[in-house]
Amino acid sequence: FEIKAYQDPYQPLMQTDLMQMAGTEITAATITEVDQAKEESKRDPENINSTTLFGMVIGFTLPPSSYATIALRELTKRPTASDYQSKLEVSGKCERNIEK
To answer: Rounded to whole angstroms, how far apart are CA atoms 28 and 8?
Structure first.
């Protein structure tokens, strides 16, 4: 897995095959790059960005007849039902309006 830091919740965290063919680069930074930026921001406090979001990019291989959504549900301990997913929000705490 890899931890990524990013600003825009709609930006991709990894490069797709189509993006590679088109030469499109991603702007998400790996966590080591984020650590370096934090060190630099300590020297320059006005350069700190409070809207940084963090995401995890994971990779795995499943045997035939296995579903990635089930593996992710087990990993995150969150439901994958469409009624639950439709209530999630992009900004803020994504589960703030969902009853627990």
So the answer is: 9
Q: Please say whether the beta carbons of 1 and 57 come within 8 A.
A: yes
Q: Is the pTM of this model over 0.85?
A: no
Q: Is 55 helix (H, G, I), strand (E, B) or coil?
A: strand
Alpha carbon 18 to chain centroid, angstroms: 19
Reported as a single tens digit per residue, the pLDDT across 43-85 is 555 554 567 778 888 888 888 888 888 888 888 888 878 888 7
